[in-house]
Amino acid sequence: MVLEIIEKLKVSSKASNATQDFIEFDDGTMLWNASLVLLNYICEHEDSLKGKRVLELGSGLGHLAVGLCRVGALVTCTERPKELIDLTASVQKQLSDVRLKLEQQMTAPETCTASSIRIHSKNYDCPSDQETSQHLASSSTSCSMGSVDAVALEWGEEAFCRSPLAREEVAPFDAIILAEVVYNTSYHQDLLWTIQKFSHPDIVIYSVMVDRPFSFMFFAQLHDLGLYDVEPITEYDSLGMDKNMVHMHRITMKKK
Ligand SMILES: C[S@@+](CC[C@H](N)C(=O)[O-])C[C@H]1O[C@@H](n2cnc3c(N)ncnc32)[C@H](O)[C@@H]1O
């Protein structure tokens, strides 16, 4: 569980993690350190995403999405249609683990628990959505969790019309998350199109990548659109990551 891994990294020998851009679990799945860096930054900063509608592009196994849900964000995590089954299964597993943990903690009266966690998985061309809700008794309303929707979304204009996000009325997102998604230059144009599709004057976009200097071409292309301000974020040090490897950015729309 990502929040627990972050806490361990803060107290353990950080250097061993700083040299690698991912952690491998016993079942062979991977957790990209970039997502830990961004989640840690969001947890530590006032501009937290609690109660905010968050769109994550290229969510992988949804570790960051679940972490953001646990700090109160209403997350729509997205993946290519063929990856959506794995994303949904992983999110369900992580949220079940969170629920178990919280239920164990509920014996302590001062413990804060979630009020509701929800998974709503939607793929392309699927007549009925698959919805799983996990409701938890709440002992504190001041610290409830958010939700996670898992939705198929492939980047680019041509693929967009097949996504459930194109078919239905979707309220604007407050933030877009890009964690380790700008590694492949052949996807840059499609990714830029998708970001623009969900942008509005108040959107905040967070991008994070570890050890991918070649990916800066993406930011050059973003800059050339003339629509966005890109500001580097340098306060990520509490996980002990190498400053030369971590690149985190906050992207907002230029004010007219
Ligand atoms: C390096 S992984 C990062 C996963 C996740 N963001 C994380 O930090 O753990 C990149 C993800 O982007 C997704 N992806 C790549 N190209 C995509 C595309 N054209 N449309 C949608 N997702 C894409 C991949 O399926 C993959 O899960």
UniProtKB/TrEMBL annotation:
<protein>
    <recommendedName>
        <fullName>Methyltransferase small domain-containing protein</fullName>
    </recommendedName>
</protein>
<dbReference type="Pfam" id="PF10294">
    <property type="entry name" value="Methyltransf_16"/>
</dbReference>
<dbReference type="InterPro" id="IPR019410">
    <property type="entry name" value="Methyltransf_16"/>
</dbReference>
<dbReference type="InterPro" id="IPR029063">
    <property type="entry name" value="SAM-dependent_MTases_sf"/>
</dbReference>
